Amino acid sequence: MNETIRTILERASIRGFTATPLTQDERDLLVRAALATPSGMDAQPWHFTFVADQTTIAAVSEAALDTFRRAGNQTVLDRMAARHPSLFYGAAVVVFISLAPGASSIEAGIAAQNLALAARSLGLGSCIIGLAGAAFSGPDGPALSERLDFPEGYVFGISVAIGHPAVDKAPHASDPAKVTWIG
Fold first, then answer.
1. What is the distance, to the nearest Å, from the Cα of residue 100 to the centroid of all Cα atoms in its chain?
2. pLDDT tens digits for 102-124?
3. What distance in Å separates the CA atoms of residue 11 and residue 21, rounded to the nearest whole number?
4. Which of 35, 103, 134, 152 could form a disulfide with 67 if both were Cys (CB 3.0 to 4.6 A apart)?
5. What's the half-sphere exposure (Cβ side, CA atoms, 13 Å) at 106?
């Protein structure tokens, strides 16, 4: 089996990271992987904000959780409280992918997968986190977009928490019933 297929099959969502920062080489390779993401008509309708500043990461986490509190979404709050105090599980870096006006969220998803697979190939863990979008839909959204240096008019697409895993997790079980071959 080749290394690319092995990386895809072994990747799992990691929800617990050590405090070890990423090396400059790891950072550089993640940036290269993000920028190598394919897009429709090579439009590249995204912007990547790599955040290692834990105060900024905590501010986004708290704003998202506050949005769920205001909405009375106790299910999400309970699920998050059972996992970790932070929406980003103590990751060393969170990558916020913002999208140009009118861009498809699929573009952000493809970029997130590139980052998740690159992280795995480097021996890092990752977790793709869409719930962070709640931070940008609440009253702190515009200030957070500015703090994260989203380009003018760009909106939150998705986020990816990346770091050195503090927990080990097996990949999810595959379900062959989800596949149909025709022809």
1. 18
2. 999 999 999 999 999 999 999 99
3. 20
4. 134
5. 5
Residue showing tokens 């977009």: 145
Question: CB of 169 within 8 A of CB of 12?
Answer: yes
Whole-prediction pTM: 0.95
What is the C-alpha separation between 36 and 33, in angstroms, rounded? 5
Structure tokens at 175: 């379900």
Distance (Å, whole) CA 79 – CA 85: 11
Burial class (CB in 10 A: 0-12, 13-18, 19+), 178: exposed
pLDDT digits (tens, 9 = 90+) for 77-109: 999 999 999 999 999 999 999 999 999 999 999
State the angle between helix axes of 105-121 and 3-10 in degrees (0 to 180), rounded to the nearest 10.
110
Q: State the DSSP code for 36.
A: T
State how far the alpha carbon of 158 is from the alpha carbons of 3, 77, 82, 94, in Å: 26, 19, 22, 10
Indicate the domain borders of the chain: 3-37+44-163
- Residue 14 · residue 162 · CB < 8 Å: no
C-alpha span between 183 and 44 (Å, rounded): 34
Question: CATH for 3-37+44-163?
Answer: 3.40.109.10
Token digits of residue 87: 């929406």
The two beta strands, 93-99 and 155-163, are antiparallel
